[in-house]
Write a structure and sequence with these properties.
The protein is α+β, with helices and mostly antiparallel strands. About 25% of the residues lie in helices and about 40% in strands.
Length: about 140
């Protein structure tokens, strides 16, 4: 497995398709809803198995010492195999090496345990996506 940013149109298409398939399609959201206005201002990470993308995540720079992990998704048939943890570790390393002292994320209720195992602390409920998916603000401090 290789973790890197997509390099060409085909890889970017696969990257965004996986984000849509896991994070939007189950709630009948249209293709395109998996993107926002900050795609070109952030760092993108993809887990490649051969030519296939099996996991994705995005690292946003919020402030000089705060980063946010967003749009984490792993191909359903590849979940529970450590791919998400490897993606998270890679994004965290980038964040810490760039001067971050804190990483935040907004996790869906069913993902809280995954992030807690990686050292994130649940702070409070944050937003309700599509009127039904409760998210929780989580934080991790460097060190």
């Amino acid at each position: 497995m290789e973790i890197r940013e997509p390099k060409n149109k085909e890889e970017w298409d696969k990257y965004y398709h996986l984000r849509w398939k896991v994070l939007r399609q189950p709630w009948n959201q249209p293709i395109g809803s998996e993107r926002d206005d900050y795609e070109y201002e952030t760092l993108h990470f993809a887990a490649f198995e051969g030519n296939e993308i099996i996991g994705v995540g995005r690292l946003d720079y919020l402030e000089p010492t705060t980063r946010q992990i967003r749009f984490m998704a792993v191909e359903p048939s590849c979940q529970s195999k450590g791919i998400g943890a490897i993606l998270m570790n890679t994004m965290e390393l980038d964040a810490w090496n760039s001067g971050a002292t804190e990483i935040i994320l907004h996790a869906r209720a069913q993902a809280l345990g995954f992030y807690e195992k990686l050292g994130y602390v649940c702070i409070e409920p944050s937003h309700l996506l599509f009127g039904e998916i409760q998210h929780f603000l989580m934080k991790k401090k460097k060190g």
